[in-house]
UniProtKB/TrEMBL annotation:
Regions of compositional bias (Polar residues) in chain numbering: 87-98
C4-type zinc ribbon domain span: 203-237
A Pfam family it matches: Zn_ribbon_9
InterPro entries xref list: CT398_CC_hairpin (IPR056003), Oxidative_Scav/Glycosyltrans (IPR052376), Zf-RING_7 (IPR003743)
Annotated region described as Disordered, given as residue ranges: 80-99
Species: Actinomycetospora atypica
Protein name: Zinc ribbon domain-containing protein
Domain CT398-like coiled coil hairpin: 14-193
Length: 242
């Protein structure tokens, strides 16, 4: 293939732009800010789960307290009824004895319930404190996640601006170059390395490897408009020195 030497030299500009685009893409894929977001997401999910656990525990205790309240109230109601029956003297001696036994039993039952009630209420208070703590941790984790996302998105926006600018530069450069030369360059670049590199001394600027002496002589002896390739990496070797 032949191409104007000036067009070949412009390939170096294109390779430079493509190099910046490749670095921008690599940066996009390996952002430390993205890792920070992922870590913040894990912490946020853990905090959210902890809140659910604390809410469930408090809800269970609320239900237990309400149940004990009802049971205590039922016992008190029955005690009140029995005392009223005794006080109004409308029962027989045997019934009075039975009522006194029942009142003693109810009093013991109420004492047990009230003791259990006090214990559960203490646990309920502790669970409420725990829920407040977990909710505060959740709020902090949420804020940390929002901050991490904002930092990451800011970096991604900067990368996007850079990619857009370099994309415009690339489009302009490609429009100036012969289509067959760009086609070869893009084909070579698609293999994973630079499509072109400057000949610096005896080294290829694309792969940074030394070129064999005999191959180097052939390259140097080629016509200025000959498109020559590196024997090591296959990239177009651009000769900038006459």
């Amino acid at each position: 293939m032949k191409a104007d030497p000036a067009a070949q030299r412009r390939l170096l500009d294109l390779a430079g732009v493509d190099g910046e685009l490749a670095r921008a893409e690599h940066r996009r894929r390996t952002l430390p800010e993205q890792l920070a977001v992922e870590e913040a997401e894990r912490a946020f999910r853990a905090a959210a789960d902890a809140v659910v656990v604390a809410q469930t525990a408090l809800s269970d205790l609320d239900r237990d307290v309400a149940k004990l309240d009802r049971e205590v109230e039922q016992v008190r109601t029955r005690e009140t009824r029995d005392r009223q029956l005794l006080d109004n003297g409308s029962v027989s001696a045997k019934q009075a004895t039975d009522l006194n036994h029942e009142l003693a039993s109810l009093e013991r039952r109420r004492a047990v319930l009230e003791e259990e009630q006090l214990e559960v209420m203490e646990r309920q208070e502790a669970a409420g404190i725990d829920l407040k703590h977990e909710t505060s941790a959740y709020d902090e984790a949420k804020t940390a996640l929002e901050d991490a996302v904002e930092r990451r998105d800011g970096v991604l926006d900067d990368i996007g601006v850079q990619e857009a600018r370099r994309g415009e530069e690339r489009t302009a450069l490609v429009a100036e170059l012969p289509a067959d030369l760009v086609g070869l360059y893009d084909k070579l670049r698609s293999r994973g390395g630079p499509g072109a590199g400057e000949l610096v001394g005896n080294r290829c600027g694309a792969c940074r490897l030394e070129i064999d002496r005999s191959e180097l002589r052939d390259i140097q002896a080629a016509a200025p408009d000959d498109v020559v390739r590196c024997e090591n990496c296959g990239a177009i070797v651009v000769r900038t020195k006459k």
